[in-house]
Fold Cobyrinic acid a,c-diamide synthase.
Amino acid sequence: MALPAPSGAGNQVSTPPLPLSPSPSSARARIDMPRIAALAVRAGSMVEQIRGRLLAPEARKVAPIYSTAQLAALCGVDKAHVAYRITKEDLPSGRLTPAGGKRNFELSELRTWTRTYRADKMRPDGKKAFTIAVGNFKGGVAKTTTAMVLAQGLSLRGHRVLAIDTDPQGSLTTLHGLLPEAEISEDMTIAPLCDGSQSDIRYAIRSTYWDGLDLVAAAPFLFSAEFALPARQMQEPNARFWDVLNAGLESVRDLYDVIIIDTPPSLSYVTINALWAANGIVVPVPPSGLDFASSAQFWSLLADLGANLDAQGGDMAGKAFDFLHVLLSRVDPSDPATPAVRQWIQATYGEYTLPVEIPKTSVTSNKAAEFATVYDVQKYEGAAKTYKRASDAYDAFVDLVEQSVVSSWADKAQVQ
């Protein structure tokens, strides 16, 4: 799908003009706040127009329709078994295509099937939602895409998922088809939790275009949380600034199976809250030298911070995670540095490294340009092998994380 053409080409889009620049002969103008504000309006207008083109006519995302083969694969049965089960009339039967040769299923129907056939992997009675933070202190590592795909993939497999965007850039919110600057209000974010005006996150939860996946959104004004949290700590000496999000989630841990938190690419007060609310961590790391070095800083800072907070919290057990997964993301086999850095990552992280790599393909880059992921694809226009390579990798990643979640539920049952 073509993006709107830049000015001067066909299919022009209109953008608000920037303040006039001085002529080449005059002194260079300083970039003051009015000019930056005008640039912000221009950029916001362009994003809104692009989204309108990509998500036309309603400018809202719509979940795909699924074939019998896709449903059967997720349920672990063959198409003949699906046809037989439909005759029992106890599960959604989908709809036959106009020609009558194929049967398609809505996402909500597919999830009814997967919850039935994958009952052994669903959250056991009496267990709490498992919370996963997707983090890395460096941007451009596919962190948000990883969080979105994990949320979509787990919901496809029958789990009820809550996605929480804690990054003021609002990229996860954008992937849900919402414009952070224009469509997100404060009561749709964690900001009231951070400033103390709310103590229960239920006020912020909204349903999305994807059945089984709810969202707590983010927007640029969420930067205020970085000031609100330390201010509360100063005003309330007994406050635990790192535990605000964790406490706010307590009331919904019986309502969801998995909670996915996308974090900012920095060690901020909000990132700390996301990590301390989590039972498990997923860290995407592309096999490049800079990304590998940045990931090393992540662990060092996290360890130092964790020791400090454990001492402040007075909890003898200290913060601990049920699992830690390092995911090789944006892997480009044609990059000559990839094999060496892959070895560094595997040697460093050992058993923490997931046995799957997410390839850097035209599928993932094209879908990102369309505010979408590989799971949003209804029909891929490119090479089938390219799409299958990407979708198979993401499927394997989701399956591995699900195994860790299910194992954690089982381990907790044995302890009790």
